[in-house]
Batch of 4 targets.
Target 1
Amino acid sequence: MKKTSIILSAVILSLSLATPVFAQTVPATGGVSQIQSFIESIVQALITLAGAVSVAFFVWGGFGYITSSGDPMKLDQSKKTIWYSAIGLAIVLGAFVLSSIVTQLATTAFGTAH
């Protein structure tokens, strides 16, 4: 009981001593375009990372296929790895195309805030 009251007191004290933080105002000329470019860079970074991982698994599956030495279990596992990495790469490319289409539609609908 004493521990919880000490922790509760510390939390209340830290909340009462906190200074308020105000949001930064966005200039009228760059609001929507800044958000759009931020989201585009995040999406592009994630797509690049996902594509690199997919290609890495593709190479891993190819290496396993080459070094399977005719073992049916290893051969089947390597085929599955190659197949799943190809599906992943197709999904990543589809996400890239979809994000490009959405960006173009949003730019057409809302325009750029210059």
Target 2
Amino acid sequence: MRLDLRIPVGALFALIGVLLGVYGGATLGQPGTTPTGVPINLVWGLVLLAFGTAMLTLARRARRAARGHANPDAARGPGIT
């Protein structure tokens, strides 16, 4: 069984996204955290979380597809060579 690189990358980005999003939400409205009016930590936390979730979803779909096509000869049926 081979390790899909999307699993650790997705987990890392999701974890960093959660941490950054929680920090951005906790410091929301404090002076000096949003000089432009945009809560950048919260926004980028959500972006990283979405990317990590997408990577994990793609890895799960690839694993499910590989498990379904483990033996392509078995899907053909008997008598076909």
Target 3
Amino acid sequence: MSDPELELLRQRAARGDSDAVDELIEQAAERGDMAELRSLAASGSRDAADQLVELAAERNDLDELRRLAAGGNQDAADVLAEIDSEADPSGS
């Protein structure tokens, strides 16, 4: 997707076009664009937040997962707990 196309998509999303929001999320996830996903999640998109957690987990980005968990994202908290349990299988 070209930069002008992406900008038009952002403009449509800003006007409340849910299809444009969905497309932006898909494009951002494909590009690994965490900043775009953060912005969309901050605007209230649960799908963007889900993609952000998934991408952070794939990248083992513990700082991002912690930030999301601290903001109340239960999925991020669950991923962190899973990572912790894998790091310390004895549970101690």
Target 4
Amino acid sequence: MLGKKVDTLTKAMEVEAKKMRREVAAMEKEVAAMRVEKEQENRAKRFSNVKGSVNSAHQQLISGR
């Protein structure tokens, strides 16, 4: 009787551990996606800043003539 209860508890713990691992994996995927998104935003900002600086320098050259 006690052995059966132990087996049932062990099985339940295994099932819960699997659920937790799945949830952790899903969260890690989410975090990785957010990091990639953030990195792309930063690249876009840097590119627009460089582009803006080039345009500004170009305008100054034109107006300086």
